[in-house]
Design a protein that fits this description.
By secondary structure, this protein is mainly α. It has two domains: about 70 residues, Arc Repressor Mutant, subunit A, CATH 1.10.10.10; about 140 residues, GntR ligand-binding domain-like (Four Helix Bundle (Hemerythrin (Met), subunit A), Up-down Bundle), CATH 1.20.120. About 60% of the residues lie in helices and about 0% in strands. It contains 13 helices and two strands. The protein has a two-stranded antiparallel ribbon with strand order 1-2. It is elongated and about 60 Å long. The protein starts with 17 loop residues before the first helix and ends in a 14-residue tail after the last helix. The N terminus and C terminus are likely disordered. Keywords: DNA-binding, Transcription, Transcription regulation.
Length: about 250
């Protein structure tokens, strides 16, 4: 039987593991350029001494770094830092968002542009090949913007559009973007405010998908998803810094 929850109704929070801490420190050291592509990391023994942890925790952290595309482990040899731009996948977005250096404005821009590309193409494809049931779910998701207490309406709407497209790679890419968005809620609240408030209504886009009008669906999706890109431009100084409203979030 699970342990009973405290008075607040929540279960106890699990503490972060030692290997998680080591992973995060090494990840940030790579992302910030302390270790550059081609550089060897210190040995397990040296890292364990530096972090004051056992070698098992270091080994687990290094294994995770390799799985994420940050390093290459050669048994009996050095652990070498990789060029993450060539070796990592979309999950790198979430790591960049969680980095101790904070959110890079250019990474934010790139993520918003990718979000727009995926959304526009997903809307176009959904209009051409979605099932009747999927079209109904998209229309229902658009109607949820009118529900005051539905704070996740925007996320649910685009998930339904991507699902309606039937494209698995779109969904996997969206999953990575969602993880990155969740890692920087304050910044993303500012950038996605217009989308979440339904400033440009999503209902006409849902109707275009339901009617099978791929051209209109793509155009409306582009207009809606361009809002966040435009907000990013208004809050940055040529992509170098964020406006104080969002800086440091």
């Amino acid at each position: 039987m699970p342990e009973s929850a405290p008075d607040g109704g929540f279960s106890p929070v699990q503490r972060r593991s030692v290997s998680d801490e080591v992973f995060a420190e090494l990840r940030d050291a790579i992302l910030t350029g302390r270790f550059r592509p081609g550089d060897p990391l210190p040995s397990e023994r040296e890292l364990a001494a530096s972090f004051a942890v056992n070698r098992h925790a270091v080994r687990e952290a290094l294994k995770r770094l390799q799985e994420a595309g940050f390093v290459q482990i050669v048994h009996g040899g050095a652990t070498t830092v990789l060029d993450v731009r060539s070796s990592a996948g979309l999950d790198l977005l979430a790591h960049l968002a969680r980095s101790g250096e904070g959110l890079d404005p250019l990474i934010l821009r790139d993520g918003l542009e990718m979000r727009r590309c995926i959304g526009v193409e997903a809307a176009r494809v959904a209009a051409t090949r979605a099932t009747d049931e999927a079209r109904e779910r998209v229309v229902a998701a658009a109607a949820a913007y009118d529900i005051d207490d539905d704070t996740d309406a925007d996320r649910h709407f685009w998930l339904e559009v991507v699902e309606a497209s039937g494209n698995l790679t779109f969904r996997l890419a969206l999953n990575s973007l969602v993880q990155a968005i969740d890692s920087g809620p304050d910044v993303m609240d500012a950038l996605l405010a217009a989308d979440r408030a339904d400033l440009l209504p999503h209902a006409p886009l849902a109707a275009a998908i339901a009617d099978g009008d791929a051209v209109l669906a793509a155009r409306l999706a582009d207009e809606i998803l361009s809002q966040a890109v435009d907000v990013w431009a208004s809050l940055t100084d040529s992509g170098r810094t964020l406006d104080p409203v969002t800086r440091g979030a």
